[in-house]
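Quick check before the chapter quiz. The format below is the same one you will see on the exam, so make sure you can read both the input and the output lines.
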Amino acid sequence: TLPVPAAKASPSIPSILALDLGSNTGWAVRNSRCRILHGTAEFRPTRFEGGGMRYLRFGKWLDQTLDVTGGIDAVYFEEVRRHAGTDASHIYGGFLAALTAWCEQHGIAYQGVPVGTIKRFATGKGNADKQAMIAAMREPEPRQGFAGLGFAEVGPLHESPGYCDTVGKVF
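Here is the expected output.
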């Protein structure tokens, strides 16, 4: 993990990319103006491609995301320790290797966040099921501290002054 370089770091609001790695990768970007974009990107290979193509496309997607955002100060990703099957484990490992190599190449700080930590932060239970997580994201009044992350509003693009006011206080 690299520290955020002083020359690239925004003085008050760092640009952050958050990822849920997989063939169907979930992502959220918070830029230095506190605008949040989120969505999914699919990296499944087609029937005429080799298995490594998903990782090449992922690397290209990361490059494009870096260009579109104007720079990324830090990357956070869901750190999975247990997988449902061997294939899922291998695919996750490939995405993790591609991501960490890309971050090192571009001098971007990165850190994994355990699944239980994310669930505990959102719902109060580290072993919350998917329905509890979805319900927590849809609550008009998120758990204490969660509103500071700026994900209470739903939509592809919105202002998030609550998060900007608490940068550095949550993490």
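If your answer matched, good. DSSP finds five helices and six strands in the chain.
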